[in-house]
Design a protein that fits this description.
Elements: H1 3-36, H2 39-70, H3 74-108, H4 117-139, H5 142-150, H6 152-172, H7 177-209, H8 216-227
């Protein structure tokens, strides 16, 4: 591939690094607005999400131009397609942060209440796997990407723990149901952040090893069941 296309790929990577950094920052800001009941910070999340949307549009345009004018093949094509998919996942992380900020605003209008300890664990896990998936992308590190994927089930389990805890609280304190439902929603949004980090990790493996591992475990189970 030409040196011109090398520069196209480098520009794509730079845009994704910038978008990934903003996705991490907006998630951190959303959780701080939730923990601190900070309405002003929650509003900043909405503004930051628009900037992430703009970056996705810019990356989409760069990807389309690369496909139309350069016709990349093999590894270059995989990297361009992965860039498009990673940008989509990062844009969704921005949306999820915005949803968490909405819950923060709603909860801040009620008296404070204790949150389950598992919610803190879940938030840290979601932020950690997002960071790790972006590190895996920046280094094209398939081993780190697999480590991110391995954490997905753990995150799902922690989310279930939060949900079950809040359902018990709703039975005990139905007068706080609206706040308790918001806690459940925040847990769900954090679990989805873990899903998007997993998607990014899968894209890293596609680029590094030319292997499509999306839904691999689920498809293997389905094939095994079909053979029985």
């Amino acid at each position: 591939m030409s040196r011109l296309f090398d520069s196209v790929l480098e520009e794509l990577r730079e845009d994704l690094y910038r978008m990934g950094s903003r996705a991490e920052a907006i998630l951190d800001k959303a959780m701080r607005s939730f923990w601190d009941r900070d309405v002003d910070l929650a509003q900043q999340v909405a503004d930051d999400d628009i900037e992430i949307d703009r970056l996705e549009v810019a990356i989409d345009e760069r990807v389309l131009k690369a496909l139309a004018l350069q016709a990349p093949v093999a590894e270059d094509l995989r990297e361009v397609m992965a860039a498009k998919m990673i940008a989509t996942d990062l844009e969704r992380v921005g949306d999820l942060a915005r949803n968490i900020a909405k819950s923060a605003r709603r909860i801040s209008s009620h008296p404070s209440m204790p949150y389950p300890a598992a919610l803190t664990t879940l938030a840290r896990a979601a932020q950690r796997v997002l960071r790790s998936s972006l590190d895996a992308f920046s280094r094209t590190d398939a081993d780190l990407a697999r480590a991110v994927m391995a954490e997905d089930d753990t995150i799902d389990g922690i989310q279930d723990e939060v949900v079950q805890s809040m359902l018990r609280e709703i039975q005990l304190h139905p007068e706080k149901a609206s706040q308790e439902v918001d806690v459940i929603m925040v847990a769900k949004h954090l679990e989805r952040v873990g899903d998007h980090a997993t998607n990014i990790a899968e894209d890293v493996i596609l680029v590094a090893e030319a292997r499509n591992v999306k839904h691999a475990a689920k498809l293997e189970r389905a094939d095994a069941n079909a053979r029985r």
